[in-house]
Design brief:
Blueprint lengths: L1 H21 L16 H17 L5 H14 L7 H25 L5 H50 L4 H11 L4 H14 L4 H12 L2 H16 L3 H59 L1
Helix pairs in contact: 2-4, 3-5, 4-5, 5-6, 5-10, 6-7, 7-8, 8-9, 9-10
Length: 291
């Protein structure tokens, strides 16, 4: 009798657990912009949405502002908010801490307190991953924009020297420039200008979204030229040459860093194999001589 009652209770508990676990899949679909191109983000997004709704009231405003800046820097769409990053952290912590605690408690001789400490340690490492992913996405986007920036400046300079005004030159650069995040941000700035925002404010918003010193310097120089009535052709030409020189300097820096980065694999991977291949016949001969 008690055996069947226990089986029934276990079955009900399993059904309830499965219902709670799969409930986010039955929620109304999110807008298409909320999903990333990454397949992993698309798979976990229903649970991210649930955790985001639960964590939204508890996120402090300084943290919310910092996450909003990082999301903007990473180029994620407007459907992403600070609570989604916090939800990813909570989901990563739950997926790592709970199985680690159960495994450490069941399959080892650790006490419950030690198992909880192990789970908190692993969960803390997983808690760090979403913020790291967001920061790396922003850095990759900035590196790509730095590659595109000199070419867009060259096109803008040529159009200004050919007789177009600055907004027309920017429109030509946005229409014919290389596809990438900087071209998208430039089109966003031009859309702000068409919506009624002043040119300087739109370019300042562009500098804030990209968070790149090179773009900030260009916007500052354009603002000073607009106030003083300077000619834009020589100014843009000087900015273009400076950005191209900085790009060559970054390439030289990476080339000089390559030998230093190769030391670790050479010392710990290549050299031991080489010494093993060279020394093994010598050791065999020495052993043969001793016998």
């Amino acid at each position: 009798m008690w055996f069947w009652i226990s089986c029934f209770a276990a079955g009900v508990s399993l059904c309830l657990f499965s219902w709670v676990l799969t409930r986010p899949l039955r929620l109304p679909p999110q807008p298409a912009g909320a999903y990333s191109k990454h397949i992993g983000i698309r798979m976990i997004w229903p649970w991210v949405a649930v955790f985001a709704a639960a964590s939204q009231p508890f996120i402090p405003w300084p943290m919310r502002k910092a996450l909003r800046q990082q999301i903007q820097k990473a180029g994620l769409d407007t459907a992403w908010h600070a609570e989604h990053i916090v939800a990813m952290q909570m989901l990563a912590f739950s997926c790592c801490a709970v199985p680690a605690a159960l495994a450490a408690w069941i399959y080892s001789s650790l006490t419950l307190t030690h198992s909880a400490a192990v789970a908190l340690g692993l969960g803390g490492l997983c808690l760090w991953w979403p913020r790291r992913w967001l920061a790396q996405a922003g850095l990759r986007r900035q590196r790509q924009m730095l590659k595109e920036f000199p070419f867009l400046l060259d096109m803008t300079t040529l159009c200004v020297e050919a007789g177009l005004n600055l907004q027309g030159a920017l429109q030509q650069a946005a229409a014919n420039g290389p596809p990438g995040p900087l071209r998208y941000e430039l089109r966003h700035a031009l859309a702000d200008m068409r919506a009624g925002m002043t040119r300087l404010d739109a370019l300042q918003s562009l500098a804030d979204r990209t968070d790149m010193p090179a773009v900030r310097q260009l916007v500052t120089a354009l603002g000073q030229a607009d106030q003083l009535g300077m000619s834009l052709g020589p100014l843009l030409r000087a900015q273009s040459e400076q950005r191209r020189a900085e790009r060559f300097l970054r390439a030289e820096k990476l080339a000089l860093e390559a030998p230093v980065k190769m030391l670790f694999p050479m010392i710990f991977c290549i050299f031991p194999c080489t010494f093993l291949i060279i020394g093994f016949p010598i050791v065999v001969k020495l052993i043969g001589v001793e016998f």
